[in-house]
Design a protein that fits this description.
Elements lengths: L3 H8 L6 H7 L3 H7 L7 H22 L5 H11 L2 H10 L10 H5 L6 H19 L1 H16 L12 H11 L5 E9 L6 E8 L2 E8 L2 H18 L1
Helix pairs in contact: 2-8, 4-5, 4-8, 4-9, 6-8, 8-9, 10-11
């Protein structure tokens, strides 16, 4: 089991009251076995889920003012989904730091998506209580902002970054840009598309969108910035 000091370094946040952090990492199975007075992380998970939802909503509202309420809701649902959050929990090896009961330990609790996501949300709640909303915002955006900035605007508002990218490549005597659909996530009415752009067969950038077209334009925008600056 990893040390809480190591995990705090990964998060980029040092707790003033370490009890908040310890509780965030304590699963109910461990608390019940030990009859811990401090309890488990379920209440912190409840709080963290709300804090996370607000911070993601606030970021999307400010960074994509032209999207409709429905489009913003779809994006928020994707970013706060368990399938998305578990990627960040796994990136910091969160499972290594959980305090689990013997039963959860034996059944692979350290790799269970539900436990990892609940603990991540509990940590966000703990940071909010310990350091306030701005510290919680800083930690959350450290994880999510690069991904959220890759989102393309709606089809109604799209600037033609694909044409601009191709013109820049021609000016630099480089090859063509090709777009590859890497994933479609979510139910049919709430799909989020991820598209990667390749230049001369090499991956350069990726974009997210509510449609495949929007994702392609988002990927082209990212690639254009890199080609123009590099």
């Amino acid at each position: 089991m990893g040390s809480v000091e190591d995990l705090q370094l990964k998060l980029g946040y040092m707790f003033r009251d370490i009890q908040f952090f310890t509780k965030a990492l304590t699963h109910s199975s461990h608390a019940n076995e030990r009859a811990l007075h401090a309890g488990d992380n379920e209440q912190l998970e409840f709080l963290g889920d709300s804090v996370l939802g607000f911070l993601v909503s606030d970021f999307l509202f400010r960074s994509h003012p032209r999207l409709t309420e429905g489009e913003l809701s779809k994006l928020k649902g994707f970013f706060v989904s368990s399938a998305n959050l578990v990627k960040y929990a796994e990136r910091i090896n969160l499972g290594e730091y959980l305090q689990l009961g013997r039963g959860e330990e034996k059944t692979g609790g350290r790799t269970k998506q539900t436990l990892l996501v609940d603990a991540l949300e509990a940590i966000i709640g703990a940071i909010y209580l310990d350091g306030g909303l701005e510290e919680a915002r800083r930690v959350v955006l450290n994880f999510l902002e690069p991904q959220m900035e890759d989102v393309g605007d709606s089809d109604r508002q799209l600037r033609d970054f694909k044409s601009a990218l191709q013109e820049e490549l021609q000016a630099q005597y480089r090859g063509r840009a090709d777009y590859v659909l890497r994933s479609e996530e979510g139910p049919d009415h709430q799909k989020i598309f991820t598209v990667e752009v390749l230049i001369d067969g090499e991956p350069v950038a990726a974009g997210l969108g509510l449609t495949k077209k929007a994702a392609e334009q988002a990927a082209a925008r990212q690639a254009l910035e890199r080609v123009s600056n590099g």
